[in-house]
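Q: Fold this one first, please.
A: Sequence and structure below.
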Amino acid sequence: MDGRDKMSRRPHPFLSGDKGPHNVTVPGTETATTSATYRHSCTSDAETHQQLVEEYRTRKNCVQQLQEQCKKLDTRAAVAYRPLEKIEHRPTCNAKGKEHVLEYYYYRERQEVSYAKLWHYIVSFGAGLRELGVPQRGLVTIYEETRWEWLVSIYGIWTHNMVATTVYSNLGEDALKYALYETNSAAIICNGRTVKTVISLLRAHGISSIIVYLDNLPVDLDTFGYRLVAWTEVMEKGVASNCAAEIPTDNDIEALIMYTSGTSGDPKGVLHTHGSIAAGVSALAERLSDLYPSSTGDETYCAFLPLAHILEFGIVNIFLQRGSLVGFSKTRTLTDEFAIPHGDFKEFSPKNHHWRATHL
């Protein structure tokens, strides 16, 4: 069977051709403390490079772009998700007879949020954080899995002149402790099931961050000395608030500290400005459009990789800028095997009609 498989393989002309490097370094930009600046390999002359440098400062950042898109598209669906009804634990045996427990996820009916409503949630959540006492330019950490509330949270932070820090939701305790200690954030957004771990790590370093939690808290939780606020309550505070949004216009100000996985030592906090995020998304959009040209909004993307990774975060932003629908899911429930009544792929049907028309 393996031999037949190897004999039937044919090289793909697009993938096998040598097209050279995608990016090259700009001479003279590397220093003792910073890496070199990279540019697109097709922009070789100094004039074009200078144009790109100018665009970094003058182009609309992601917050400005999303604000315009939400106003323009109004009632069009922006994001979709399925509320989790329950998780069932089923004991089973593997091929060696060893028993283990599998989780099955039961979902309720799909919900959609329009572009206009998405922006309302974003601004309201940011105002809610300010009502909690998070100061301007204060740090807010997001330690949660990929979900639509993650997206609302980070944009809410940005619309009220705060700085986001992101940490992988599956980061080990040592790495998480390092990131929390280094940022000393005014607030931490996390899931109810991880609050116990977060509080223990904060206590160990004497950090008194406000904890904003999603979903439910465990019943035996010791919260002494800490202020816990439900994510939905923050939203409600923001709706009732008079705190006006402050959309960033200076692309050189710090927007995000994105922590790496910490697989080779302590996690590293990668600093992004609003300009660097917009530049990265723009470069990625150019590559994505080569393979999947925009189909005038009639397309769906299924987000399941960590939004705490710059690649998935950039892709989600690209599809929102294209006016697409982004369905939020998780790796465990993509297929029908562990999702009831069916998996996320079947529910959201991710598609790009232009690609289908030219490749089928």
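Q: Good. Now the second chain.
A: Here it is, same layout.
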Amino acid sequence: MTPEIQFHSADGGPIYFETNFEQWIVEPYNMVTAAVFVGVFIYWAARVYKPEFKRTFLKRVLPILAVGGIGGTLYHGFRNHAVCIYMDWVPIVILTLLASAYFMSKVSGKWWIAAVFVLSFFFLMGAANAYVPRRYATSVGYFLQAVMVLMPVVLFLRKRQWAYARYVGGAVLAFTVALTASVLDPHGFLPMAPTFYGTFSEL
């Protein structure tokens, strides 16, 4: 039987196996992996924000990634305010929606198809949050977000003769490990929380 997930009253977020409120850094593994995204933002910002760089999609989404990285670092590090948890997960949802819409529009050539596709998954995520037991809702939501991005990405790769498919395959493998860690975390089998593993899939 899966143990019930406990939630912290200060921020409303789940209490992971590694969470220790007696430490100054409450979730060290999660904090470090969230901070990695700040580094990813700095790395790409130095390359993207140049006149010769033409891919405007990356220029637009990088600030969202930065907010998520900063919010995730503060949230997992200190677990003391609800604002931080929103800064952690809302940018992830926005990036997922934008990436899914971007690749679906590239594949279909029609913006309305991309919009219907994204809205359909957004509805499914809302239904999962409403009807799936709370201890499973987060994992189901992550799974649906991954599928929402993966489907148009696979179609896009097929149009490009599977160029860079190995990177997508690696991300899928890492995400599978992260999702498994999310399900197992309440049992305390692993010392670090699911965010530690999820970082590698998002990178």
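Q: Anything worth noting on the second one?
A: DSSP finds seven helices and no strands in the chain.
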